[in-house]
Design brief:
Elements lengths: L2 H23 L5 H6 L5 E7 L6 H13 L5 E7 L4 H12 L4 E5 L6 H10 L5 E4 L10 H8 L5 E6 L6 H18 L11 E4 H6 L10 H7 L4 E6 L13 H20 L3 H29 L8 H29 L15
Parallel strand pairs: 1-2, 1-4, 2-3, 5-7
Antiparallel strand pairs: 4-6, 5-6
């Protein structure tokens, strides 16, 4: 089958899913309400968490970008906490007739939770996440939507970079670390401009700070993810320096994603490898001490190496046992675990 036919088939399936979703959404509505209710092609979710720019300016830039497309859209703001000034500005936009939906949490729950709430309260078969601040130049959203025709998810990459050298250094360093740990070629996980099909949000769950690693998790589930170069906004150029604890949390989140993507159903491979290595080192130390005692007449008393070798063996066995216990849990619940995505069923 040629690539053109495959792409046409993808578009047909996408159109069918969108029609089914719209039919389900209006089921039970009055016919007059159904005729007056516009269909939504794209749901734009904008989480407000920690950093944000002028609300009206950012909103108008995104809206102008979306108006250049042929898609019917909705814009959903999710306030991860109070943000009274942002809420007041959004209410003013609503009073002016702007097509907005606002979701506000009672307290801060994190950006991943905000995005999840936005997904759950959206109607479009295409989802777009955008930051509440200037990150890319106007026109980027339209390019993102066009690239979704042949992909399940499109991830923005700020390129060329126009911000400070320190910011670029941080991004390159994080890219090298995440590539070394996960093996994925995604250069700018800090870019919040992303578009994806509804199925990605339905199949992939995120929590904590895992919203940054959604493309990696989506690839793990078998979705086709593409990185798209988008020109960086000059307003995103200020120097970003975080507390040491933030960098540590990012590294731990990356290790979490690595473990979940590689060893969710194979925990013994992870814990067994670590436990066996530790126990092996401890065993080598004990064997050497035994050889010294039996053949070289070296006393074992008051030797820290004896305690260290014994401790390594015990710790290694415990880590190995932890992996074995995890394997038993996975085996018990294996029928309830799903780690694949079905593209289509033929006949």
């Amino acid at each position: 089958m040629s690539e053109t036919l495959v792409n046409d088939e993808r578009r047909n399936r996408f159109s069918q899913r969108r029609t089914m979703r719209q039919t389900e959404a209006v089921a039970g509505e009055h016919p007059e309400e159904r005729r007056s209710k516009p269909a939504v092609d794209v749901s734009v979710i904008i989480p407000v968490s920690e950093r944000y720019d002028n609300v009206r300016e950012v909103y108008n830039a995104y809206k102008a970008d979306l108006d250049r497309t042929s898609y019917a859209y909705e814009i959903i703001y999710v306030l991860d906490g109070a943000y009274a000034d942002v809420l007041a500005e959004l209410r003013q936009l609503l009073s002016e007739g702007e097509p907005l939906k606002i979701i506000r949490f009672t307290r801060a729950f994190g950006e991943s939770t905000a995005l999840t709430a936005g997904f759950a309260n959206s109607d479009g078969p295409i989802l777009v996440t955008l930051p509440a601040y200037h990150q890319v130049e106007p026109g980027s959203v339209a390019r993102l939507l066009n690239a979704l025709a042949d992909n399940d998810m499109v991830v923005g990459r700020r390129w060329p970079r126009t911000d400070s050298g320190f910011n670029r250094f941080q991004t390159r360093l994080f890219y090298r670390v995440q590539k070394m740990i996960t093996g994925h070629e995604l250069h700018d996980l800090g870019c919040g401009v992303r578009g994806f099909k509804r199925q990605v949000a339905d199949e992939v769950s995120i929590y904590g700070d895992q919203h940054r690693f959604l493309p990696i998790i989506a690839q793990r589930w078998g979705f086709k993810v593409k990185e798209l170069d988008l020109p960086q906004s000059p307003k995103d150029a200020y120097r970003r320096v975080y507390r040491p604890g933030v960098y540590l949390r990012r590294l731990l989140d990356l290790l979490t994603v690595f473990f979940l993507s590689k060893f969710t159903k194979k925990p013994l491979r992870f814990f067994g490898l670590i436990g066996s290595g530790i126990a092996f080192i401890g065993a080598i130390i004990l064997v050497w001490l035994t050889i010294e005692r039996l053949f070289l007449s070296v006393a074992l008393a008051d030797r820290p190496a004896l305690l260290a070798g014994s401790l390594l063996v015990v710790v290694g066995i415990q880590i190995f046992g932890l992996g074995l216990l995890a394997e038993l849990i996975i085996f018990t619940h294996a029928k309830d675990l799903k780690e694949y995505t079905v593209e289509e069923v033929i006949n």
